[in-house]
Amino acid sequence: MAEGELPGVLVVDIGGTQGVLENIAALLKKHFHLITMKEFLGNKEEMSKKIQAIFVFVCRPAIDRELLESLPNLKVIGNSGVGVDHFDLKMISSFGVKVTNTPHAVADPTADMGMALMLASARRIVEGNVLNFSG
Fold this sequence. Notes:
Layout: E1 8-11, H1 22-29, E2 33-36, H2 37-42, H3 44-50, E3 51-56, H4 65-69, E4 76-79, H5 89-93, E5 98-100, H6 107-122, H7 125-133
Parallel strand pairs: 1-2, 1-3, 3-4, 4-5
C-alpha cells in the first residue's frame, strides 16, 4: 500500500438489490477504498494485495476458505448485522483474521417490537382488527 493510500475493503456491490446501501458506502469511503466483488474477480492478482478488510452486508460476500486464501493482507471482516453465527469463526481465525459486528445496532427496535407484540397479544388487538374488518 502506497503512502496516503486508503486500505481496500471488499464489498459485494454498491447499491442495487444486493449491494451495500449508498449511505453506508459513503461512510466506508471516508476510511477505505471500496473494491466490489466484480472488480476483485476481474483483477484478482492486483486487488488481492490491496484488500485488508471485508464488509459483509446481508451475509454477502460469503466468507469461505477460497476467498480467505486469495487475500494475503486481510486483517478484519466487519459484519453489518448483529450476529456472527453465519461465519466459520474457527476457520477464519486460522488465517489470523478478526471478525467484528454491530451488536447494538438493532437492540432498541427489537425491544420495541417485543413490547408491541406483548401488548397486541394482551389486548387481543389482532383479533379485534380481524373482527372489525370482517363482513
